[in-house]
Amino acid sequence: MSDRVIIFDTTLRDGEQSPGASMNAEEKRRLAGRLEKLGVDVVEAGFPAASEGDFLAVQGVAGRLEKTSVAALARTSKNDIDRAWGAVKDAKKPRIHTFIATSDIHMEYKLRMSRDEVLRRTVDMVKYAKTLCPDVEFSAEDGSRSDRDFLCKVFSAAIAAGATTVNLPDTVGYAIPHEFAEMVRYVMEHTENMHKAVLSVHCHNDLGLATSNTLAAIAAGARQAEVTINGIGERAGNTSLEEVVMAIHTRPNYFPVVTGIQTEQIYPTSRMVRMVTGMMVQPNKAIVGANAFAHESGIHQDGMLKNPMTYEIMRPETVGLSGSDLVLGKHSGRHALRKRLEEMGYQLTDEDVAAVFVKFKDLADRKKHVVDEDLEAIVAEGILRTSEKFRLLHLHVSAGTTVIPCATVEMEIDGVTHRDAEFGNGPIDATFNAITKLAGARCELMRFAVSALTGGTDAQGEVTVRLKENGCVALGKGTDPDIITASAKAYVNGLNRLEYLKANPAVSSADNVAAEN
């Protein structure tokens, strides 16, 4: 049994299925480059059959990565598999990842197929995928609730048909660690040709056990872990890459295995995912949360001063939290800015650096020091986004104890400038009313959250909104030292993401077809 655990990152596919976390093609492409620098072995770039936008996004990722395998998800249907292959065929290392449910409840109520039909479909479609791509992964959806002997039979047939990886998912987050480990051992012992393929696991966090289940599976012999950055994903999320990798790194006596992850790149990658998706990381999140290496207790601080290992089982530098000696301010030049951006993992063109430099100078005029979080916000807002339908040009707000709050907004909509004003219960409500009127929006504001990127009274405010329209949910994010302006930016960003979702309607990856040619 190999001591190398393959890290399969599905942030761009399963992670994107978090409500409102959709990414456009350019965002996926840049984030994929970051994941390659992190050292993941496989990037699952998306579900090409879901929409034309997802197909193009996967295709863009496939054309970018040099060392990392690029996987595309497909149901067990020729149409899906053809679409997946069309998206990844130009990748240096392409992979087709096809799946079908194997639990009795899914086969009876969702697929309306018998066990024999599922088995035949598996064999036929894995064989077909193999004629297109040498690297084929097969997943048994809802595997943790499947009959063990039937699961082994399906896996054996999939491997015989050409699958190089077979995946055992805990699709609904139902498994318990010791139970899941026993299932992994059973599959490895009772799947006749298991030695010809890699056994993978894909766990969801509905009971808060995704990382525990994954680690238990690795200890039992699984050699591929399917994970996401920050643990994002459907419902309660997926197994967190940073937790699995750092558990292996920190406890080599218990996990005598290795990964190819460059741990120093974990925190910068986490921050990029947060910036791109607009999904905040809870302060007490393991490894990458704001409080992960903070010590407030007097006893803890005393121990830390005497020996950091008294209360830190890993060094913050190990995950990329080492501080920079380079302080950026209004007198900093373009060279210093480029150097810091490169240290943060951004490989930008001269044109991109010039655009960031203008925004950096504008921000530096308003606050003494510009920190990494500020730079990431500038890059995310100015570079990582593609062309947008709505663009905020100007905002003027009147508010106070003796006036009715009023906002005047000037926006560019499809290249045409529009201006209007509206009243509200407060300055932000007035701003949103004016933007809604100009944009002709019919969405519902589901969530509004405000936080500070850093400490200090001159910190940039970060606003996150969640918008819903006709079943589409989009997150919007905006940053600015002025919290009202940040709110307007977030709302406009959310409207643009809604437009992207409406233009690229996705088919749920959980909906298998009952029959396909």
| Count of DSSP strands | 14
Please state the average pLDDT score.
Answer: 89
Within CATH, the superfamily of the largest domain carries the name: Aldolase class I
Quick one: biggest sheet? 8 strands, parallel, barrel
Strand content: 15-25%
CATH architecture of the largest domain: Alpha-Beta Barrel
- The top-level CATH class of the largest domain is Alpha Beta
Report low-confidence residues grouped into runs of 5 or more.
508-517
- Considering DSSP H and I runs of 4 or more, what fraction of the residues is helical? 25-40%
Number of helices: 16
Mind telling me the C-alpha Rg?
24 Å
Distance between the termini: 38 Å
Strand order of the largest sheet: 1-2-3-4-5-6-7-8
CATH topology of the largest domain: TIM Barrel
The run of helices and strands is: EHEHEHEHHEHEHEHEHHHHHHEEEHEEEH
Number of domains: 3
Shape: globular
Which structural class should the secondary elements be placed in? alpha/beta
Question: Can you describe this structure in just a few lines?
Answer:
It is built from 16 helices and 14 strands. It has helices at residues 25-38, 52-64, 78-88, 104-111, 115-132, 148-160, 177-190, 210-220, 241-250, 266-277, 298-306, 334-343, 350-364, 372-382, 427-439, 483-503; strands at residues 6-9, 42-46, 69-75, 94-101, 136-141, 165-170, 198-203, 224-227, 390-398, 406-413, 416-423, 444-452, 461-469, 472-480.
